[in-house]
Specification:
- The protein has a domain of 42 residues.
- The protein is 23% helix and 17% strand.
- It contains three helices and four strands; from the N terminus they run ααββββα.
- The strands form two sheets. A two-stranded antiparallel sheet has the order 1-2. It has a two-stranded antiparallel sheet with strand order 3-4.
- The longest helix has 10 residues.
- The radius of gyration is 13 Å and the shape is globular.
């Protein structure tokens, strides 16, 4: 993946995934205020520790969730798998 550029219009949620994909220039979907509102709406907020569970969620331009995967704490998603999912909705 290093040195490769990927073209898509999908915003990416989460800095770890963004960095793993090679510091692509995408908008980041964040959840600053009110704290947890967006991740609660997606059902991925962990009330026990006050943070979201690690997920990759791909939403198409029509607002339809096209891919959703939860990852164990400390596990990074495979960038190749994410890019393959993005390719499916081009």
């Amino acid at each position: 993946m290093a040195g490769q550029k990927q073209q898509t219009t999908c915003p990416i949620l989460g800095g770890a995934v963004h960095n793993a994909l090679g510091n692509l220039r995408y908008s980041l979907l964040s959840d600053f205020h009110p704290h947890g509102a967006m991740v609660k709406a997606y059902g991925i907020y962990n009330e026990a520790n006050g943070a979201p569970k690690r997920h990759v969620i791909i939403v198409d331009k029509q607002g339809v969730v096209r891919f959703r995967q939860e990852y164990a704490p400390g596990t990074l998603p495979n960038p190749t798998d994410i890019l393959a999912e993005l390719d499916k909705i081009k």
